[in-house]
Automatic annotation (TrEMBL):
<dbReference type="GO" id="GO:0008080">
    <property type="term" value="F:N-acetyltransferase activity"/>
</dbReference>
<dbReference type="InterPro" id="IPR016181">
    <property type="entry name" value="Acyl_CoA_acyltransferase"/>
</dbReference>
<protein>
    <recommendedName>
        <fullName>N-acetyltransferase domain-containing protein</fullName>
    </recommendedName>
</protein>
Length: 232
């Protein structure tokens, strides 16, 4: 059963993500993240022994889906003609991290294809939090954590509308801040359009793992991770 429409533009309507669309939403996100510029850079390195594939993103993102559905602040874009999910903005309380995810991706016990990418993202998030410690006070911050749009629906303002539709949900839930970690140039543009303020940026070409730079081949205009904050 569809939730109340948050926003509508053309044939696309925006709703709170529920269990009805969990599986579709997961696949839209996983396919979108396969196009992540840093992942492309990692896969193109001859020294990369474990290539990142769709299944890796499905596994990675699946750890987050239950909490992002249950919290009532994530948003899904629906093509009302085809009745299909075409975009997802998976949101969380900033301090929420699924235990199983932490065990698989944030410990020394496992090495997966996405481990280097996750280590970079975690490092960047920790450094960004130092710029505004208030973000990590209990119940203060909602995080726009995973944004993805189906490849056939890109450049149609859907990503921007997913962010736009999320913000009133955060405010209604009592959050004081919204955060967005942009791992590519286009997501930073969306943050700017929605009046976010950048508090930190990091050149991923300088990231070193085991004494080597591993993202130095990322293609322009990408290559900067940027952390954005909006006061609600």
């Amino acid at each position: 059963m569809m939730t109340t429409c948050l926003l509508e533009e053309g044939d696309i309507s925006y709703h709170i993500l529920t269990t009805e669309h969990t599986n579709e939403a997961l696949m839209v996100l996983a396919r979108a993240f396969c196009d992540d510029p840093a992942c492309h850079a990692l896969n193109e390195r001859p020294s990369t022994t474990i290539k990142i594939a769709l299944d890796d993103w499905v596994e990675y993102l699946d750890y987050w889906m239950d909490s992002c559905v249950e919290n009532g602040i994530s948003v899904v874009a629906i093509d009302v003609v085809k009745h299909s999910v075409v975009g997802v903005m998976a949101n969380r309380h900033l301090l929420d991290n699924p235990d199983k995810f932490l065990k698989e991706y944030c410990s020394m016990q496992h090495t997966k294809a996405l481990t280097p990418w996750n280590e970079l993202a975690y490092f960047f998030e920790e450094e960004s939090a130092k710029q505004l410690p208030e973000l990590r006070e209990p119940c203060k911050t909602a995080d726009l954590i995973y944004l993805g749009v189906h490849e056939n629906y890109r450049r149609k303002n859907i990503a921007n509308n997913l962010v736009r539709a999320s913000l009133p949900l955060f405010k209604k839930a009592g959050y004081k801040f919204a955060t967005l970690e942009a791992t590519n140039f286009y997501t930073s543009q969306i943050a700017q359009r929605n009046d976010f303020e950048r508090i930190h940026r990091y050149d991923i070409k300088t990231w070193v793992k085991e004494g080597k730079t591993i993202f130095d081949n990322v293609k322009e205009p990408h290559g900067m991770f940027e952390y954005w904050v909006k006061r609600l």
